[in-house]
Amino acid sequence: MDTPTINNLNLIFSPGTQVVSRVEIRGADGRPLHPAGVVGVITASPVDHDHSYRVRFPDNFEAALKRTELITLRDFQITGMTQQYSVLTEFDLKKQIILQCVIGSRAYGLEHETSDTDRRGVYLPLAELHWSLYGVPEQLEDRETQECYWELQKFLVLALKANPNVLECLYSPIIETATPLGRELIDMRAAFLSRLVYQTYNGYVMSQFKKLTADIRNKGEVKWKHVMHLIRLLISGITVLREGHVPVRVEAERDKLLALKHDQMKWDDANAWRLALHEQFDAALANSPLPERPDYSRVNAFLLKARRTMAQEST
Predict the structure, then answer these.
(1) How remote is the C-alpha of 168 from its chain's centroid?
(2) Whole-angstrom Cα distance, residue 271 to residue 276?
(3) CB 52 within 8 A of CB 66
């Protein structure tokens, strides 16, 4: 999990920035004028870190301060809050995972021997940490192990918006961990499905194909793996609208999708396939049995139940 760097030493602050002196301010005669901690305003910035800032203090006295001798007022005010990260290290948040699944090529059935294993899921933080001043991260991410876990409320909101990556977690054929709450979440997954899938999936694909077309025009290159996943997303969205479930594994179209991935299909043919799928998507929307919006009340009730569960465990 990446932590932000307070008072990044690589930055050069611009004139007008309020700063706090880390050192005592002395006059030309060496007499102390201000204690460390006084607030000033930068009047002139250096071009590099080898030279000093000019800082004006409330009595209009200006001093030359090195980068290491000052901190921005904003960063000074939140420095104590950075203890959030030491607080979080006291809790193994991965122990709070209620759902862990595999998505990506291994879930789609498009993997090869060296494919990564992408794990995604949901974690429910302890109530005392969730209620604390520091709060909890919206997601836990480990790039080395290709893992990402959303905090429960964040996950639910994304799912209600028909986020494809999140919906695929709920329908993944490879579930590795599911607590009772995680299993209940899977059992109610249909509550997240609605006609919003059309706007989310279709809109994303159209915008991405516009960028791909520009890449071909400007650079003469095609990101075929990306094209494959966009086509797969359209096929998935059509099935969602028609049948009311998210198809994660590709079946009948597997060979054609792999041909796309490996640059074995002409761009015009790929684009024609995409346009035909858009037409099918339009037809699927017109005849879909799904509701206009997901079941917000049921999802909200689940969130409250989960929060109460953690509150009871904290007492």
Answers:
(1) 16
(2) 9
(3) yes
List, in order, residues 6 or more apart from 247 with CB less than 8 Å away: 171, 235, 236, 239, 240
Buried b (16+ CB within 10 A) or exposed e, 237-251: bbebbbeeebbbebe
The answer to whether residues 234 and 205 touch, using CB atoms and an 8 Å cutoff, is: yes
- Whose CA is closest to 61, among 47, 41, 76? 41
pLDDT of the residue at 91: 58
Q: What is the pLDDT of residue 137?
A: 84
pTM: 0.73
Query: In the structure encoding, which two tokens stand for residue 151, read together?
Result: 């905090």
Q: Where are the alpha helices (DSSP H) in the chain?
A: 73-78, 84-89, 105-108, 127-130, 152-160, 164-171, 180-187, 196-197, 203-219, 224-243, 254-261, 267-286, 296-314
Per-residue pLDDT at 10: 53
> Is residue 169 a contact partner of residue 30, using CB atoms and an 8 Å limit?
no
pLDDT in tens, 158-168: 999 999 999 99
Cβ(192)–Cβ(294) below 8 Å? yes
* Pair of tokens at residue 209: 């194909």
Collect the ranges in the chain with pLDDT lower than 70.
1-10, 78-91, 314-315
Distance in angstroms (rounded) separating the CA atoms of residues 244 and 288: 8
- Would the CA dihedral through 240, 242, 244, 249 be positive or negative? negative
